[in-house]
Structures are given as structure tokens and as C-alpha cells.
Amino acid sequence: MSDTMSGPQNGPGYDVLVVGGGAAGLSAALVLARARRRVAVVDAGEPRNAPAAHMHGFLSRDGMSPAALLEAGRAEAAGYGAELIGGRVDRIDRTGSGFLAHLAGGPTPGARRLLVATGLRDELPGLPGVRERWGRDVLHCPYCHGHEVRDRPVAVLGTGPGSVQQALLVRKWSDDTVFFPHILSLSGDEREWLAARGVRVVDGAVRRLVVEDDRLRGVELAGGRVVPREAVFVLPRAVPHDALLTGLGCERDEDGWVVTDASGRTSVPGVWAVGNVADRRAQVITAAGMGSVAAVAIDHDLVDEEVARAVEEHRATHATPPSSPVR
After folding, report:
1. I need a labelling partner for 258 at 20 to 30 A (CA). Which of 130, 222, 230, 265 fits?
2. What architecture is the 14-122+237-316 domain classified under in CATH?
3. Which reaction does it catalyse (predicted)?
4. Domain 125-233 architecture
């Protein structure tokens, strides 16, 4: 990305400032640039799916690497005039004309509207081997990676609410699925569900994942027993990168996530949020669609503002002068 930018660096130099250059942010920038809007995309270069070699389930892009998708997206958006800025936004201030973004050691771009697509971070269980193998053979989304480990010995690690459901789901891809409750206490119903589904339960605390020759070999329990496995699914805790949004006063729901409408509009006028920062379940193709929807909504919002201003100017220019009194 370029560290330079066109237009003024203070005030509303852009129609829209997009913070976050992943699938959601770049999709929005592409649509807005094609709509002849002045758009800047600021990205820190830390995509959530960077550890993954391939992404799946994206029509026409299945098997493509996440890095290749972003490279293509940047080229497409820039080709229509979107400005790409490498850097991290530390703070965003509201101004009379829109928003002003403060970058660490960089420019201070201003814009009339703001779209935040900063994603989330996956808070992984602190077991040896999990982070090292994350996105390779330690996985999260079975719809993204289940097909690639089909019919192999797989495991699901119990880390919190939803882990049992994940095991029941993963079972579709492999008859040899083991569930490690680990820190969870299973109810009688849950054990029955797993048994009925054909998921074997191995009780006991997990000590680590066994890795040899750069491959996952198994799951080791606290007592030393190793259960051979070739892939492990976990449910990380999703933590949204929403400090910019909450700093602007965006309303949050009871679970702590920023509230948006169907177009990504937040409770703060002029601010949209899309992708994983607003929806923890959004896959790459979903995030790209969210960005496109938000871009259209933002453009309509800008047009409404421009029409209102044009009407005021028209009335002021074409106002009928008061009649002179008859003498």
C-alpha cells in the first residue's frame, strides 16, 4: 500500500474513509470508487485469516490464498481510484463535516462518512501447539476446512459454550471424530447426543497437541496418554477490534457487539461497520457481501445529503425578490 494520498490531509478530503483492508473493506471501496466517490482505505496489514494457506466456499475463488485475494482486491479498488494507505488508525474524531482519522506516525485523512471493517482476533486456548498449528491443522470453521480433513481422524476440543455443538457438526465430515471435554463438564443429555451421533468422548484434561515433522500427530492428556489425531477443531473466543467504534459512542448489544442494521449502519450517524467487527460468523464471502451492501447504503446517504444541499442552494439562488410596494 502507498503511504501517500491525494487531496487534503485535514477536513473531509474524502467522501468515505474505510478502516480495514480485508474482504469487507476492499469490497466496499471497490463499489464506492466505481460510484465515483473519493475513497481512502487504511489498513494495518494484519488479516485474521493470514495463517490459512487457502480459503474455501467463496464462489469462483475456492482454494485461493487469502493473500492473493487481498492483492487482487487492492489492485481492483485502486484501478478505480481508491486511495490505499498502509497504517493503523489510533483514533477517530467527529468533526462538523464528518470524521478525522489519526494514524500512528502517518497522515490524518478526513471523510464525510466512515466504514469500519477492522475484523476480530481469535483468543485461542493456551495449550502448547494450538497457536503454532492455527489455520493449518488446528481449525475453527468446518465449512471452511472440513472438506479438507474429511474421513481423517479428527478431534474437537472443549473450550466453552458451543463446543459440543461443534463436535456434533464436525462429525458430518469424519466417522472418526473424538470430543475432548477438557475443561467442560458434560451433562447427561450432551453425552447422549454425542453417543447417538457416533462421537467418541475422551475425558480428562488436555496437556498439549503433539506435533512431529511439522504435522499434528495427536492430543496428549494430562496423564500422558496420546490419542492420535490429524486435525483438531476449537472454538476460539472472538474479540472484535471495535475500539474505534466504541470510541465514537456506537451502541452495543447485550453480548457486547456493536449494533448495526442490515446495511451495516451503526447508531452513530455516518458510521457503518461490516465484516467480523460486526458479525463474528461472517466468512470471507459474507464479509465481502456486507461491504458491498454498506457501500450502496453509504452512497445513497451521501446522495441524500447532496440533494438537500443542492435544494437549499437552488432556493437561495432562485428566490423571488419581494415585490415593491405599489405607490
Report:
1. 130
2. 3-Layer(bba) Sandwich (3.50)
3. [thioredoxin]-dithiol + NADP(+) = [thioredoxin]-disulfide + NADPH + H(+)
4. 3-Layer(bba) Sandwich (3.50)
